[in-house]
# Entry
Amino acid sequence: MHVTIALRAYRLRDIAPQWLVGNVGKSDKTALRLAIFQPDIALNVGAMMRSCACFGAGMDVIEPCGFAFSPAALRRSAMDYADLVDIRRHDDWHAFERQLPGRLVLLTTKAASPLWDHCFAQTDTVMVGQESCGVPDFVQERAESRVMIRMAPGARSLNVATSAGIALAEAQRQGVL
# Structure
């Protein structure tokens, strides 16, 4: 017997209100940004949106998303912070890559360099991958820097939103945000 499972990928522009579609809120092309590669979990995106608002970073969402991207899905974790963030959505990796302003800094468990050794620049974009599988090899190869957050032995990975918040806090500590 052969079973086929269809996964639905959603595009932001098809179902989201204007505040989720792009280029709203703060707009500073020279500020550090957080990019999320094809996110799986709406609550994590909302939490990262809130972190971006609190640290003053912009946010890029690279589609497709693995969930119905709606205000209701993000409201609980993003709260009322959406209007404080420059949120840009990109139809796919290539659309994102074409507008990348500076270096791509990838947070990954596969990196050898610790986050604390990375010197952030204003035009950097910090990227996190999908919660379920990270990013594909072509994204790994495109990143100018691949950094990891050291964890206790035996720990596999931090929550993606937690990792993003730690990286934004480090950029702020360095005076970039």
